[in-house]
Amino acid sequence: AAAAAAVDVGDVEAILAYDLPNRWEKHGDMVLLPENCFQNAVWDALKQSQRLWPSVCAALRARRLGQQAVVDPGLMRESRVQLLVGDNGWVEHTDNGIIYSFDVTKCMFSAGNISEKLRVANFPCLGETVVDLFAGIGYFTLPYLVHAQAQCVHACEWNPNAVAALKRNLALNGVAGSCVVHEGDNNLVCPLRVADRVNLGLIPTSRMSWRTAAKALKPSGGFMHVHENITTQSTLRSQQRAEWQAVGAAIAAEFKQILEEEQGGEWVVVCQHEERVKSYAPKVFHLVFDLQCRPA
User: Where do the H-state alpha helices sit in the chain?
Assistant: First the structure.
């Protein structure tokens, strides 16, 4: 209040209009504010009096409140959400009939991947064994089991906070008996030659585990779903598509070489489809390349 009194009312209104959030995420009774709001010194007095956050919480009809921050750049990509109101960060989010439970202060949740989760849910996986190399809290593991009807998923994850959420989500969705969780670096814990399908759901690149994916595939072959961030030169969709197809062909050629080295014999690898998941940055797109792999 004192800070507000020291400046012109019009200036205060302009500051507040700029500094208030115009959107936020809601998970059950928790609201997550974006990181770039309520930053101005005008709010300091209210923050110090501990009146600001309960008031925001009440205005947004929430019981708990958190504020997002840049994701930890480390290999585990951990959340840095700060809890402002409430005593724990566990929330539930439902997508396509699947419950995802996670602690927002420890685990990341990407709402932008919903289109790929819906696509995975429609894969014909009845009777298949799937290896999910970057399982997280179950973003793709759960659609494979709940909707695509995979017989078994081997879920590899090395972040203990994500593993705790993954196990909780498998139980919540009634599919714990169909999943084997391998905790640790997937290059060390992934099972060999068991998969009809391997999911490599990590961006900006999953390249560090391509050889592990090749070792996980059954000798009879199967599919790889390779996630990558791809930079394009063109802004025209038709030209972008041509660039993506060229990248898909190059990835297929690299997997052919890796499979021949790891599994032996000659292999045929074809990129059947390039799926655009989302725009990640200007001219940078999160893509999934569907590779069909079979021995020649």
Answer: 2-5, 9-19, 44-48, 52-59, 114-121, 141-146, 160-172, 186-189, 210-216, 237-263
Cα–Cα distance for residue pair 161/103, rounded to 1 Å: 8
Task: Mention every residue, 6+ apart, whose C-beta is less than 8 A from residue 250.
Answer: none
- What is the residue whose two structure tokens read 């990181």? 35
Whether residue 9 has pLDDT greater than 50: no
Q: What is the torsion angle, in degrees rounded to the nearest 10, for the CA atoms of residue 113, residue 203, residue 138 and residue 192? A: 140
Taking residue 52's Cβ as centre, other Cβ atoms within 10 Å add up to: 17
| Structure tokens belonging to residue 215 | 């070792």
Look at strands 98-103 and 129-132 and give their pairing.
unpaired
| Average pLDDT of the chain, as a whole number | 90
Is there a contact between 154 and 182 (Cβ–Cβ < 8 Å)? yes
* In the predicted structure, residue 80 carries a pLDDT above the cut 60: yes
Cα-Cα-Cα-Cα torsion 189, 192, 197, 202, nearest 10 degrees, comes to 30
User: What does 223-251 look like in DSSP terms, one character per residue?
Assistant: EEEEEEEEE-S-SSHHHHHHHHHHHHHHH
**Residue-wise pLDDT tens digits, 156-184:** 999 999 999 999 999 999 999 999 999 99
pLDDT of residue 243: 93
From CA 172, how far away is CA 169, in angstroms rounded? 5
What's the predicted TM-score (pTM) here? 0.88
Whole-angstrom distance, CA of residue 65 vs CA of residue 62: 7
**Separate counts of helices (H) and strands (E) for the chain:** 10, 13
Do you find a cis peptide bond into 204, omega within 30 degrees of 0? yes
Task: Tell me the C-alpha distance between 155 and 158, whole Å.
Answer: 10
